[in-house]
Amino acid sequence: MTRATASFTVDSFDPVGEPDGIISSVVLTKTFTGDVEATSTVRMTAAAQTAYVALELITGTLHGRKGSFVLLHAATPEDTRWVIVTDSGTDELTGLSGTAVLVRHDDGSHTFTVDYDLPK
């Protein structure tokens, strides 16, 4: 297992449709710097602003290897899981598998850590 760490900024946050008071959807974009040099598009649906699911397409490089992959996010107040979607890796990231973690810092910044495997 290899670990990659990056920081990221949220470049856009756009609501989709009209929230119904409990469920809302957004599309956001991010830029990553560090071991992950990439941009991403996230499609997220949240419930009561406490739980969410999302798919995030990350395109760029992971430790210098070029390609893209999809992260599946699932979060509740009790549990958060980010998993690389099987068979979503492209180009030099084909066969990528693993998990990711997001840490929010007091200053508002974010750290993104990916623990991953790639076929040899």
From TrEMBL:
<dbReference type="Pfam" id="PF11528">
    <property type="entry name" value="DUF3224"/>
</dbReference>
<protein>
    <recommendedName>
        <fullName>DUF3224 domain-containing protein</fullName>
    </recommendedName>
</protein>
<dbReference type="InterPro" id="IPR021607">
    <property type="entry name" value="DUF3224"/>
</dbReference>
<dbReference type="InterPro" id="IPR023159">
    <property type="entry name" value="SO1590-like_sf"/>
</dbReference>
